[in-house]
């Protein structure tokens, strides 16, 4: 099978599909993005890659950052991290605060907003300069020193994300945040605001396709076993309440963001990142999902 | 790597672990089982197998049957089946009726009780003699014509499962059951009551390790794509509200039953069934989970 | 103040109001009722009364029966009844099964369906012939020996009320029903099916305006203190999730039914029953609510 | 009947009852209160009064303030206030945030925390100097110019009430707060912090026993109809999730606070305030409830 041929074929077809997605509007800064952008980059573990469209253009990674903050916290905290955040799928969207209340302030998993807030709280304790250390970590994973926080996006989110503030205060009321609510919300907003290209994202996640080992830096970022656990978590929790549909139709561990990015991994084969700003009603990139479904269907290869 | 060696090593160690599980008591017939039973059977796609302990003893498959009824219904209904049942993880246990009410009688997935009731309702419409056809189907998959319903277990469940009756009536109130509630509950209780050995179960699920093709009968039970979808569903929904923990620790698609059985699949490698009647607080076999965690950890091989 | 004059004035105006209500359709038999029916009857404790329109015509009392079954069970069980059913308002409509599940099968109060099912379960234990004893009790309260169950309505409800069957099975699963689910549902359907006129209802509830004493039969139906408790329960729980609005706008203890009847009581003054089959979106008679709001506003007299 | 005699009799007995209550600890400042304090003051509409114990000692009125902020907002907003807050009982305690989320940021009623936050938001818009105007209003109702905010209590609450901050942010996320979250929380904390005596409270609420007319100031504080509506709201929503039990056992409109105060009204007869800092598990004064239950039982007079 030729991955690159299939990749190219789908790229040539994808524009015939109607983009039924809608650009995210809840963070004012994100509204400004051009809906017609489309980029995709596949990085194979053998060093080959395929790229198409706007793959060199930066966009806001948003929730995709939740995997990266988790990795950094997991490295220092280890398994005791799971005392403060669960590993179960979130159930339905409206449940975020509902389940948080029922389950005494322990978020269901680290890839939903509530869970990522707890992870940021951990980073505030374990890093001497959390924003700097996190940015350095992401730059190293991406192999790209030019990556930066997008301050306009971060401040825009901080000014408007009352629901995150509600979640953070509720978690705090249960004693599961150690730091000040405002400090947690600040770090959270900044980690979400990093701008990256499809290539950056595929490079950053490739260590999860190679059992935690990063070929670029020749470092074991995280152990084999933890690398598998991170993939399992992405599989179950990476797509809001569309995790099931993503698993059934696409069958890869991955994570989406409301900036329109999706990154996914086929262990032992490749990492892939796709970007199309129009979101479906679940908050996942509409054409991004279409592309990945075609790709795993035509390659006839997924984790299942 | 030698799967058989690792298998044997773990078998020789497993009895040193304390069995913290408790035998299911909510169905009176199931209480009678000897908690000390332990069996396991691995069937590799190359035809080899390993077996240990009480692998030839029959036990009640209970919820494991939900995968098998789903396969039979999926074969005849195809993708339109997903109009009546979802593909998302269940959220928390108490949610069963809660979410059913919120989501207008569409169960979250076919591997929870509510979803399996809808599947049984479909079988009542698509089969001329549902009990007979389902038993024939399971016998064929297992390659064992001696399999039978356990009438005592089925009747015991029917007499005591008021919560299933509640779910069925609630689904009916939303119009998502076509047949009589009692008929649906009857078929459901019988499909759960089949007695099988670890070997039977591993053989029955092996087609899901080989993209839907059953080597014994030389039949394509279900298409490649649907076989992958079934594995994805088991991954996300096969272990009640412990799906995340099972994925993170074990990393295989599978399904458990309150009879103490667990069956799991590593696509392109093996199907494995383990039986130990003591259940953890989530309703999954305590030692069965322990065995499988050791197995995928030591083989260093899972879907992730 | 002249109650009768105000009563007459409102009756002469009420037809100018548009009836925005809709006749209940979920029980097929109830759909047949003529929406234009309107009747009202006020029975004062001094023996006077006012009547208007279709006050002599029988209609299905439906949930109004919940107060009457409660009185009969309260007489024999006394305060230990509150171990099996609460006294708190129901919250929201969709909560019926939700809260039942959260609160371990103890219905929130005896005037919602779930609670009335528990009351019927009690009557099955405390009465030697529950249907006969209940009918005798209602006939005595109404002073009308011609009252009868409407078998067509009862059987229509039994055949279609899957949600009640769901609630009954859920309560049974928690051990809070002693009798068979079908027997409880049968008694429940029959008690709801009695046909009564506005005059019958006003007479039946008048003892709650006179501290539990029934002037007609010269019997203390229930003690002073329990009579007050029953009024308090009606105040908080008598109008589904519109209890607050009814209290704020009308300010009388009362109970409605989906047959379009509402009965209400001003202690030390009167009992009043109004009937208009069109229901508002909360299931309470649209014009019935309008009439009572005008009546307590113009008389400037309520319990508050 | 002699109210004063019954009042005195109960006062002489009340200390024989074990105080099973516990002093509120969630606001650090409140923990300092002496649990043995007990005071009660009844102000009859004919000008007579009875007093006992620590009726002249000030305590923190806490949630009792919710009625007073509501009255002030109701005076200026009128019925359009009900577009932003409901009139239905809250359901269960854990529902506060749950129902807020389900019901799109419209709190169920103005006497729960979420609802009082919306009322404070209204006061921030309608008053030029909300804190000063509210304090003036309470001083006038109480006929006591010495009343003050307790700054230590207010600041203690602001520093620790993360759950209120969660609710305020959630309401803001639905657009039902116009002002800054911190400003709303600040006003809320101050209004709760006023210290008053039993006599102050009974005087302040007496206008609700006289159809909105305040005899002291000879002013109609609010219209007859709105006065009745306020009583109805207290009846249904004044005691957290113990509203039903309070109605059934005591049968008076009223409001409690976690400072241990309860104020209640029998329209056309009296206003009564009782204070005992030990709270039952629902957050209502344990001995305060006992006193009021004895009082309405022995006087045989309630609204029902």
TrEMBL record, chains A, B, C, D:
The gene is glsA. Homotetramer. It comes from Roseivirga spongicola. Substrate binds at residues 63, 113, 157, 164, 188, 240, 258. Signal peptide: none annotated. It comes from the Bacteria. This is Glutaminase. It catalyses: L-glutamine + H2O = L-glutamate + NH4(+). Keywords: Acetylation, Hydrolase. One of its GO terms (molecular function) is glutaminase activity. It is an enzyme of class 3 (hydrolase).
């Amino acid at each position: 099978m030729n991955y690159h041929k299939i990749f190219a074929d789908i790229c040539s077809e994808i524009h015939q599909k109607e983009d039924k997605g809608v650009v995210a509007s809840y963070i004012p800064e994100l509204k400004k993005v051009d809906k017609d952008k489309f980029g995709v980059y596949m990085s194979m573990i053998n060093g080959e890659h395929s790229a198409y469209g706007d793959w060199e253009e930066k966009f806001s990674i948003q929730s995709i950052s939740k995997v990266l903050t988790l990795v950094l916290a997991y490295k220092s905290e280890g398994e005791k991290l799971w005392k403060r955040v669960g590993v179960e799928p979130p159930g339905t969207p409206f449940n975020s605060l509902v389940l948080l209340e029922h389950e005494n302030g322990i978020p269901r998993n680290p890839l939903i907003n509530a869970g990522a807030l707890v992870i940021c709280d951990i980073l505030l304790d374990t890093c001497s300069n959390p924003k700097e250390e996190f940015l350095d970590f992401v730059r190293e994973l991406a192999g790209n020193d030019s990556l930066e926080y997008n301050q306009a996006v971060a401040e825009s989110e901080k000014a408007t994300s009352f629901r995150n503030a509600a979640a953070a205060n509720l978690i705090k009321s249960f004693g599961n945040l150690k730091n000040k609510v405002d400090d947690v919300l600040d770090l959270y907003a900044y980690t979400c605001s990093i701008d990256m290209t499809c290539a950056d994202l595929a490079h950053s996640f490739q260590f999860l396709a190679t059992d935690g080992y990063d070929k670029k830096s020749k470092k074991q970022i995280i152990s084999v076993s933890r690398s598998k656990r991170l993939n399992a978590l992405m599989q179950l929790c990476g797509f809001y309440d569309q995790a099931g549909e993503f698993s059934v139709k696409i069958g890869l561990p991955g994570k989406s963001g409301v900036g329109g990015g999706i990154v996914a991994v086929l262990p032992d084969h490749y990492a892939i990142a796709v970007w199309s700003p129009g979101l479906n009603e679940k908050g996942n990139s509409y054409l991004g999902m279409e592309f990945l479904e075609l790709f795993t269907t035509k390659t006839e290869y997924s984790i299942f």
